[in-house]
Amino acid sequence: MPANPTSRSTIAWVSLDDRDNDPVTFWTYLATALQTVTDHSGAVGTEALELLRSPQTSVNAPPISLVNDLAAWPDEILLVLDDFHVIEAADIHEGLTFLLENQPSNVHLMIATRADPPLPLARMRARGELVEVRSADLRFTDIEAAAYLTGTMGLELSDSDIATLAERTEGWAAALQLAGLSLRDRDDPSDAVARFAGNERFIVDYLVDEVLDRQPAGICDFLLATSVLDRLTGPLCDAVTGRTGGAATLVELERSNLFVIPLDGNRQWYRSHHLFADVLRSHVSERSPEWLADLHMRAAEWLQQRGDAAEAVRHSLAGGDFDRAAALMEMAFPAMQRDRRETELARWVHALPDSVVQRRPVLAVGLIGALAQVSAFETVAQRLDDVENLLRPNGGRWPEHPPGAGRHRWPAPPTHPPPR
Could you give the CA distance from residue 71 to residue 178 in angstroms, rounded to a whole number? Predict the structure, then answer.
């Protein structure tokens, strides 16, 4: 409950994915969300965003600034971090711990996660500062399952069938929704219910098969093809599927409750339910790894054409086209460095085979710089040696221009060997 029932309450929502494991990216999204819901007044988040744009800023400065801004804000604020389990960066966990330990009384933090985050939960629990909603709290009871299946889904099921579904799915809402979709228009739903068995993952695999088998071929192909996308919009779906009408299909899927969730009020961008998309991708990978790689390449091409080099890199890596990914990385460097996304750049080092990095000196030097920025010095010396051996084999002269892309960003050749 708000501390002051007469005050206004504001909600700032941040949906996270694994690309947000960079402290600058994370705190930029969080500060932007807070600034947006406080009507861009400059009261919350403006100073933090300015700090984040400065290369000299400490990683601790943004959360300190946000705490000060939030303490001065007169109204209640609920800050929601959705899918926080994808955040693994220790710097982010430390910053959020600071925010929690210095949280103003008008601020409430809600974290939606599949696993307990590395935050001081035990201490907060002991102080009575933590409200937990666990999986057992989210499970549908038999009465709730009956209301959902016969009301929302419009199914005609016996009490025994409903009890079986609730028991086999353990009241898991996503599995109940899949079960409801698979039972639509069945002549004998009781017979289908009787075949549900196995653990949670087997139930999902089985139900996804059932749902896909009951969709028109076009919808089935659309769901499988677009499962490679974290975010969906009509033109991108068209590029991946090779067809038209993606925007209308997304609207149809949303209306049919087929696990498509709108991300904005204009119904321009959507995302798939994570577990549903995971199972679909698994189906594509098992049936046709070549098709999966092609889908990623189509997504990469569309994203590259629209200037989203970083996301195009992700799809190129997922599709196994490392040379294309390397070329895109070189193009992405200026924007990534400007936005201080060195942590993400450093992760790219481990995603590419060494043989690809070693033959692209511009890429290698950019990645070495990123590693140094995040204090990951373990392999920097060896990577510098690799670049030197590439550019001047056998100790020859330094080239005036390096091979490969990005020549305009290459520094002038040294007049003497660099210090060792």
Answer: 44
The residue type at 304: Q
pLDDT above 70: percentage of residues in the chain: 81
CA angle 65, 67, 68 (to 5 degrees): 65
Distance CA 241, CA 220 (A): 11
pTM (2 decimals)?
0.60
Buried b (16+ CB within 10 A) or exposed e, 215-235: beeebeebbbbbbbbeebbbe
Q: Are 9 and 75 in contact (CB under 8 A)?
A: yes
Q: Which fold has domain 217-293?
A: Arc Repressor Mutant, subunit A (1.10.10)
Query: At 13, is the secondary structure helix, strand, or coil?
Result: strand
Position 340: which residue type? R
In the block, tokens 């970083």 appear at 310
Q: At what angle do helices 289-305 and 322-338 cross, to 10 degrees?
A: 40
Whether 5 shows a pLDDT value over 50: the answer reads no
Q: pLDDT for 216-258, tens place per residue?
A: 889 999 999 999 998 999 999 999 999 999 999 999 888 877 7
Domain locations in the chain? 9-132, 138-213, 217-293, 321-409
How far is C-alpha 318 from the geometric centre of its chain's CA atoms?
14
C-beta neighbour count of 72 within 10 angstroms = 11
